[in-house]
Amino acid sequence: MKADIFKLVERRDGARVKPSMAKEASRRPPPRRKIPRSFKDLTPAKHFNPRTFFQELILKGWFTPRHGQPRRPVFPKLKHGEVAITWIGHASFLIQFTDLNVLIDPNFANWLFLMKRIKRAGLKMRDLPPVDVVLLTHAHFDHFHKPTLRRLPHPKIGVMPRGVGDLAHDLGFSRVIELEHWESFSQGDGSHWKVTFTPSKHWGARTLHDQHRGYGGFVLEHQGRKIYHAGDSAYFHGFEEIGRKLGPEIALLPIGAYHPETFRKVHMGPDQAVQAFQDLGAKFLVPMHYGTFKLSFEELDEPPRWLREIALEENLTEQIKILDEGVPKVF
Fold first, then answer.
1. Is the pTM of this model over 0.90?
2. 52-69+76-330: CATH class
3. Nearest Cα to 133, choosing from 96, 82, 165?
4. 82-114, pLDDT tens digit by residue?
């Protein structure tokens, strides 16, 4: 019965889903889960206690001057097969083709509750081009930012993990798609593109009560190009599988929030990001997830500095592209 419903959807808007049917987001309430016993239980690494969290991440952030200025972007005129990537900051990207604009994990907030944004977004929301698709890797507040999503000029499609769609129903999307790992969603309305949801090593809970929410990354395929956004992830051998199955060319990989060592249970440092890049077999590494919010104990400028050192040691300076926020880079 469900398959028949999806056939009707396919005839109406040209969407195709494989290998198994992606699910239109359900409004059914999530299953009940056991409440974590302490603040530490909110993360798999169990590395936070309230006092340390407040002193190291919140209080120090308050006394760090906010810097950086939004740029008025000059979006390039692209040829078929070219892709422009603009890092907005943190894990937020604008991916552009000649006929497709995709936002990934958009977040333009200056504050996440008590957490201060240390570096401003690289461009202003009003300077975005019309957005066709928004990819959301998981429900954490720094990646799934409802006020930002609500202010977007009503993108057509939102694609996100299983169990996250209920958060998106009042955010202006004309269609919300939930995917399981390795499921793909494609659209063939004259601009054929496909996105595949990939595993990661992280966690998906947004609050005390929603351990059921999925998490992962995406591989976007269009005009013969493949771009991989890892979302949040620790290093794991799944990068080899992603490279083998999907062969991404450009890898957007997190490099921050890795200190103290227990944070590496859910995040990567530059050293592990380079290993993930090599496991993927990609041509270019674009780092992200650093320098915007103080999410861990390393200095905000340490991740790119360390990555540059590794690039020199490993002879990878041509493959690693550290982007300036708000400046499109054509690949």
1. no
2. alpha beta
3. 96
4. 999 999 999 999 999 999 999 999 999 999 888
